[in-house]
Amino acid sequence: MIPAAQALGADLGKSVMAIAYGEQWMNMAQPFWALPALAIAGLGVRDIMGYCITALLFSGVIFVIGLTLF
Questions:
Q1: Per the UniProt record, which residue ranges are transmembrane (predicted)?
Q2: Mind listing the pLDDT tens digit for each residue in 43-57?
Q3: Fewer CB within 10 A of the end CB, N or C, for the chain?
Q4: CA distance linking residue 50 with residue 3, whole number of Å
């Protein structure tokens, strides 16, 4: 991604942070990280998906504002 950002003349710091934010953002939409805890608690993915989507939407706004302003 660094060569692509350099070829486009984009800020390298913003490019790297955009990649990191995007990866973390999708981890909120697909909560594979929570599967062991859900199994221990006896819950299903449906039980936490609403919370994950809410966090996804709010953090998406924060990520976009952060990348745009800084």
A1: 48-69
A2: 999 999 999 999 999
A3: C
A4: 38
